Amino acid sequence: MADQRPTLTTRQGHPVRDNQSLRSVGERGPATLENYQFIEKITHFDRERVPERVVHARGTGAHGYFEAYGKIGNEPASKYTRAKVLNQTGVQTPVFVRFSTVIGGKDSPETARDPRGFAVKLKTVEGNWDLVGNNLKIFFIRDAIKFPDMIHAFKPDPVTNQQEAWRFYDFISNTPEALHMLTWVKSPWGIPANYREMEGSGVNTYKLVNDQGVAHLVKFHWVPKQGVRNLTAQQAAQIQAHDTSHATRDLYNAIKGGNYPEWEFCVQLMADGEHPELDFDPLDDTKRWPEDQFPLLPVGRMVLNKNPDNVFAETEQSAFGTGVLVDGIDFSDDKMLQGRTLSYSDTQRYRVGANYLQLPINQPQDAARAHTNQRDGQMAYYVDEQGEDKHINYEPSLMGGYKEADRPEHEYRPHVEGQLGRYQTSRTQDDYKQAGERYRTFEDWEREDLVANIGADLKQCPEPIQLRMVWHLWHCDEDYGRRVAEVAGIDLEKAKALPPMEGKPAPHQAREGMAGVGEEPATTEEVAAAK
């Protein structure tokens, strides 16, 4: 029977033939500026709420400082990057950090099962560097064009105004790349005990560039020196029964009492390139870089030692963007990073105003005071200092004004070549592998909580979603799918009999791809015994 549903279009009425992929140069990118469909979609999404953040509305923040060790692992940091903030020792770079949940509104409970935002603004001597990430090292999707759909599915139903499990799993069941993140979020890692005992990650792949113009792919991570602690669903419910702001209270009281939280800043490094030897694309933010192959290398430390004087002026008006980088740190072609770089700053201009960077919380420090030819706009209250040249708000000029900065001797100029089109990554078998590996490396209590949470959710879903989700989980790990099916009362054999998803390659069977060629893959029981 022919599909009778109306065709999806843009706001201009143009039929949408691919709603899953940015337009990019070749499969790995970079993305291009003429992505009209994406720009229309994401900029409208950025303006869906006023003035509360569309996502990350519930948050708290603190001031502190960052100190670099001057080394990356055992090597001088200058070997990999010319960024002064990572090279100079004995310098305390001011920082402001905003922690948050993602989906809930401003007054939602901090015990919600949700990724946690971990956004850091470093006010370096070369200008601001914003590292905008989450507590988990991965994300649900790998192409930014899917972001509005994902958030719509996770947010309350536009009719019932309630979060519905079926909407969440309807999206996940049609997006296998999200299975890895699902496995993390529905485990105890989906509810950190507080913000102090929580990891942070830049999630996306960036590049470090040195004085010779040589680049390395890099992942950024924050490791709490307080340790990591998470909550089960039952523990979170007990806290929420008497306190919906427990994490904000914990952070505020710790800093007020002089118990300053501290994180070690670490990186994972990889040579710049496509890395065909790996079974995942290093630009794919739904995948972790295995730490046995790409270890976490210490770079510096961050200490939070001052609470905001005014929550609205500082925490709520703080504005972050993934495009805010300093020299020596650069973009990769990660499609989520490229989409976020447009969306984040676009959101701030809409939410806080065209001159949000004039607010003290967002201004660079005096050593890197902004000097631009930008003028006017909503809430402009000063003009950049120009001495006698205030007449000159353009460049170039023979009469004064600003000049361009000197270019580095060795610029980083990656070669880009490819057919312009809409692409999905061809390394999709790993959408199941890493989710299964994560399931098997959880502690027993973490697996039990994960299975109970997903099973309880799937009981609320229609049968087609139930069956497809069990099919996915069984392909991640047979034990994973079987136990969820048992908890939810779903017919496992009926789920296993489903055909592969239309338009997507069939995943490897649950027992394939979990070990090297010629090796017998480890079972769940064997992994547990090895511990």
From TrEMBL:
All residue ranges annotated as the Catalase core domain in the record: 9-403
Alphabetized UniProt keyword annotations: Heme, Hydrogen peroxide, Iron, Metal-binding, Oxidoreductase, Peroxidase
Compositional bias segments (type: Polar residues): 1-23
EC number: 1.11.1.6
Region described as Disordered: 1-29, 498-531
PANTHER family, sorted: CATALASE, CATALASE-2
Protein name: Catalase
